[in-house]
Amino acid sequence: MITSPIRQALLTCLATVCCMGADGQATAPVPHWEPCGWGGGGWYWATVFHPSKAGVIYLGLDVGGVCKTTDHGMTWKTMNVGLTDYSVYSLAVDRSHPETVYAATEGGLHKSIDGGEHWRLLPKTGPKDLRITAERDRSVRSIAVDPVNGDNLYAASPGGKLFTSKDGGETWTETYAGVAPETMRGAISVQFGKVDAQYFGGVWIPIAIPAEAIKAGCAGIGFACKGDGSQPERTFLTLTTSSGGRYQSRNISDLFKDTEWRDALLKTDEFAVEPDFATKHPDAAAAMPVHPDWATVNRIDLGCNGNLPANAAVVVFDRVFVSTGTGAGATSTTIRDFAADATVQTYGNVRVGKPQPEARGAFSIAVSQKDPSLVIAATTHSGLVMSRDAGKTWKHLKTPKTATSAMFYAGDPDIVFASFSVDGIWKSIDRGETWTRCEGGLAPKAPFREVAVSPVSPLDVIAIGDTYVYRSSDGGATWADATVLNVDLTGNPTRHFMGTNPKSKIVHPMNVSFSPADPKELFISADWRSAWSGDGGVTWSERERGADISCITDIRFSKGRAYATAMDEGTLVSEDNGTNWRQIWPLTYIADLSGHYWRLAVDRIGGADRIISTASPWNSPLKRVVVSKDGGATFKDTVSGLPDYQVRANTMWGEGHPRALAVDPNDPKLVYMGLDGDASDGKMGGGVFASVDGGETWKQLPNQPGSRRMYNGLAVDPSDSKRIFWGSCGTGGGVWSSTDGGDTWENAFTGETWIWNVLVAKDGAIYAGGANLWKSADHGKTWTQLTTFTNGRAIVGMEADPRDPKTFWISAITWNSSSDGGIFKTTDAGATWHEITGDIPCAKPQVLRFNAETNELWAGWVGMYRLKQ
Question: pTM here?
Answer without folding.
Answer: 0.81
